[in-house]
Amino acid sequence: MKKIAITLDSASDLSKELIEKYDFKIISFGVTMGDRFFYDGDVDPMEIFSYADKNKTLPKTNAVNEEAFKEFFAGILKDYDAIIHFSLSSEMSSSYQNAVNASKNFENVYVVDSRTLSTGIALEAIYARKLTETVDKPEEIVKAVEKRIPSVQTSFIIERLDYLYKGGRCSSLALLGANLLRIRPEIQVLDGSMKNTEKFRGKMSDCVTKYCRFTLEKYNHPDKSVIFITHSSAEPEMVEAAKAVVAEYGFENVYETTAGCTVSSHCGKNTLGILYINDAE
What are the two backbone dihedrals, phi and then psi, of residue 198, each rounded to the nearest 5 degrees? Predict the structure, then answer.
């Protein structure tokens, strides 16, 4: 069997434990806050929120450039026969195209446009890792993964619209109305981009329960092998509310992860999502 490396960018929001469990290799995005630069994973999301609240502007996330990908791929290929790399959606970042350009320098690097973000990317990579146990050809694994990409259910419920407003993703009127009425919007990834699809209203933990039930009832053919509960430093009662609903559906693996710079910078604190593949395979 060929030794195939599965690589992802840090927008996949995986914990160190899960990276080790699935033997993934990660290349990190950058985060710029004023005159300070960090790699994703080296800065606590709470510092991102503090910076945004103090400066009334969002940190800037920096895509991985082509040269960094070349170095990354070359280093991995010293120990592996091939690489399958999963990138943040091409609709959201230039990182995908940079990875594609870098891959042209090698014969055995395959780049997948995940068409999603956060642990939605991880779901695709976990499926690829499973396939490496029985499939020896990277191109066949890529083809199988790409068939399932439209079935990846990636969505989040957001406490406040402040960060979407600062990022130019909603109007000041929508911001004011949502905050006054305690409207908690759902952001869903559709066709590779983030869209506002539903609205919930009330106490955040109650809205998390409503959101989870709504999502699991709407997308009701889940692959029950794995589901992610991913959040940006959400309050404990929010996380427990999500876990309580998910527990009713019999998922084999429920992974809780903390969002990194991409979700945290765009959506703010107390953002929470459940992510799974909805095709029952």
Answer: -140, 170
3-state SS class at 248: helix
Q: What is the DSSP string of 143-176?
A: HHHHHHGGGEEEEEE-S-SHHHHHTTSS-HHHHH
Map tokens 């809780």 to a residue: 256
Range with the poorest average pLDDT among 67-76, 196-205, 231-240: 196-205
Q: Are 158 and 268 in contact (CB under 8 A)?
A: yes
Query: If we measure between CA atoms, which residue out of 232, 240, 60, 209 comes closest to residue 160?
Result: 232
pLDDT in the model for residue 179: 53
Q: State whether residue 135 is helix, strand or coil.
A: coil
- pTM recorded for the entire structure: 0.92
**Residues 105/26, Cβ–Cβ less than 8 Å:** no
**Rounded CA separation 194/206 (Å):** 23
Q: What is the pLDDT of residue 280?
A: 74
A 10 A CB-CB count for 97 gives 15
Residues 212 and 246: beta-carbon distance below 8 Å: yes
